[in-house]
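Before relying on records like the one below, remember that each one covers exactly one chain. Contacts with other chains, cofactors or solvent are not represented anywhere in the record.
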Amino acid sequence: MASGSQRFSIISDGLPTQLPDIDPDETREWIESFDTVVRTRGRARARYVMLRLLERAREQQVGVPGLRSTDYINTIPPEREPWFPGDEYVERRIRAYIRWNAAVMVSRANRPGMGVGGHIATYASAASLYEVGFNHFFRGKEYGESGDQVFFQGHAAPGIYARAFLEGRLTEDQLNGFRQELSHPGGGLPSYPHPRLMPDFWEFPTVSMGLGAINAIYQARFNRYLLARELKDTSRSHVWGWTTSPSSSTATCSGWTGRSGATGRSSRSSRHRSAGPAGMSSR
């Protein structure tokens, strides 16, 4: 207590502070008003009101902590998410096998006498995104459609190879030749998506880092052009891209906010067989 005012401990920009409540009655009225909105209009409406108040506070230079994250425009709140459409246990087990094979592939490439290594954690951290995409979102080029265009994150290539191994499209000997295109007997696997070396597997190059994200944006714009000019029906095609490169952040943000059609997340699921690299289909 200080001069009859209550003090509440809060965290502001990561630093604990003590702020006095100089008008408890007014504070109570604001809290009761907020509780009423939650009770009568729901949590979504209450959250919107709070975000608008924070936005207004920044405009008035009140000095409230900035938001650390923002909403995706095309996502929905958790309470509106439908039930998982597949067998979650089976998909989780398959994902674990792919993660393991990808890690072992990179580890073997880093063995004594070889030492070419690779990126061991990139796919491990993104496996859920890729597997949900493969199983439920990516569209193949079957049934006369143009299908989706998937710009795989280059450093996640070991995971895509590991998935192809489970599908029987690559052999163990090929996995053992990761990053050894010339030295491995019979030829090895390129480090990153390489359509010239593997034209039946990869569709787009995505390395050096940032290339995939920028190309995804322009691919989406080109799809819109083809549709608008009635040159090709791309209305059901989606473009998927991943990036972790700061060098492409400006162009990427520009493309997203420009509504180019490049899709990072989607709530639509595909009934078609999912598109693998180079548009090949996999169940």
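The helical segments are 24-41, 43-59, 88-109, 122-137, 157-166, 172-176, 211-228, 249-257.
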